Amino acid sequence: MPKSNKTPTINDVARLAGVSKKTVSRVINRSALLSEDTRTKVEEVIAKLGYVPNPQARALALRRNFLLGLLHDNPNAQTVLKVQEGVLDAIRDTEFALVVRPVDRHSPTLLEDIRRFLELQRLYGVLILPPISENDALAELCLEMGCGYVRLGSAMLDDEEHIVASNDREMVQEAVKYLIDLGHRRIALIEGPEGFRSALERREGFLAAMEAHGLPVPPEARAQGTYRFESGLEAASRLLDAPERPTAIFASNDEMAAGAFHAARQRDLKIPEDLSIIGFDDSPVAAHIWPPLTTVGWPVREMGRAAALKLIAPGEEAAQAFRFPARLVQRQSVGPPKG
Amino acid sequence: MPKSNKTPTINDVARLAGVSKKTVSRVINRSALLSEDTRTKVEEVIAKLGYVPNPQARALALRRNFLLGLLHDNPNAQTVLKVQEGVLDAIRDTEFALVVRPVDRHSPTLLEDIRRFLELQRLYGVLILPPISENDALAELCLEMGCGYVRLGSAMLDDEEHIVASNDREMVQEAVKYLIDLGHRRIALIEGPEGFRSALERREGFLAAMEAHGLPVPPEARAQGTYRFESGLEAASRLLDAPERPTAIFASNDEMAAGAFHAARQRDLKIPEDLSIIGFDDSPVAAHIWPPLTTVGWPVREMGRAAALKLIAPGEEAAQAFRFPARLVQRQSVGPPKG
DNA sequence: AAAGCTTTTGACACCGGTTTCCTTTTTCGC
DNA sequence: GCGAAAAAGGAAACCGGTGTCAAAAGCTTT
Fold it and tell me: CA B37 → C1' D27, Å?
């Protein structure tokens, strides 16, 4: 008789159903070699007892657990959370769970820390978010430790089975083309920081669009930021104080675009009448500043879901997807140039 | 001889060190009853092999695992992430890991879903974020399932050992007093949604401050929102169109405050000259709108850390803390009333 | 040197599942 | 109705740790 007030084990089920543990195990794992009779009998007992297999015991016996990890260095809160939701979409109704692990990109012991983490937790696989997803040594570490991994990024950083990528370059190109089509000619760029693949992709997209239309990009129409608000403010200040003021700015992310808003406001420039601004990310701040920011959004949640599926069900169709289109979210920070 | 290319187990260590498993186990667990000699000998082998105990096996033997859960219904991305960081602060250098589990507050099967989650994962304990932390049935469920829990909230929803709370009421009271001291008399309130404890606390704080100074709060000086941006815009619109326009607004969160900014802008009201606004949360948007929003911030990260410590090291001093002071973050959306 | 403690160590069962391998039962062709 | 193959189910070992308890070793004490 199963002791009451304790969670039932496979032994309790077996005893009550009058079968062996192994048979119960077969029922749990939907093994084919089972008579309908025993199956239903065991299932009834399972239901009656409210038996749920112990995940730790299962993990031990199977020599693999059901934990997915999320490695990130807070690219921005909304993104991290959306990815988490996407992963949850993928693992809903499975036995997997999601373990989060924020890291510090600048820590000199980054790799060591992550190695310890992986050793300690023995995860089934990890998802790596940008910007640390761009770290190849990290991917190698996962391989070496026998831990599955999928990187999220803005370009094809890895094989199809290890990457879920947006297409920043193409989308920025389109966004800038949109500005050009509206009549803008002097368009400035606020770049992201050195060493970020996303910054590079967005810059290349920008330059490609300008070149395709034969528009020059003088040095004073480019400024570099750190992806942070303040840096956007500074960069935009420099751009707007140039002798030939741009009529439009593409900022490599929304936070810097918000900074550019402030710079414009300080100079009494009206958006979008005097200055059009496009950002990138479609973060919450984009919708909450005034006027609402036109920006490029990528399907973060879907990408998170796809990444998780790549790890836990690589066979499935949805897990094959590796390239996701971003799209232009038109709001009110863009208009035709004045005059 | 330990087979190469496989992660070493306790047996490998025992064999190589010429001792029993149990002795190795003692070394791992820092048991006191061990001679210095054997300890160093075993430790050397552990280091040489790079042995790390298997967490699943440990969990099984100890009948408890080392997983903390975070249950939340995205109050706002920044908050969730800060709590995650706080928890990580607490569990750094321990064997604990953090499992996240977003839920849908409005799902009719909320409790059932969480029950299944808890059954399936057998977590050591969970942290529950507002607003679902206000759900008493959920806390009972945890108790019933033998899962430790700590609620984060804006008031004392539970015993000291189960709660980490800010003190919204008091802080709002102070914030409103600050407005009053600046000379404001017609101060309006944008409330949060019905049924949120935080909304109630903040409203009570507001009303208490007003009453303490003998200021009336007519119905047209109160409007209710949903904590979302759009609702703040609508609520503020109503408030600002009242015959006796308020000179200041307290919004129960930053998103709604941002909405109020837009409403003011639509009416050509200058902030803070024509209208002062105070928000609550100190979310990123507060710093990125123009002018930067004066708001009330609570120490989310520290609270997350304290909550985690309550679960994993209830004895420690830092785990005793259960009440955290919020503080007024002064930026530029508040000034004395005109005239 | 033997007895009596205390300290250190190991043998073995156990946690709750899965796997391997073997036995029993059923089905089926002839 | 019989033998063989297939299907169903069980016994025991195993995954990699920890708990119990007793044995061994070391140290006093008489």
Answer: 18
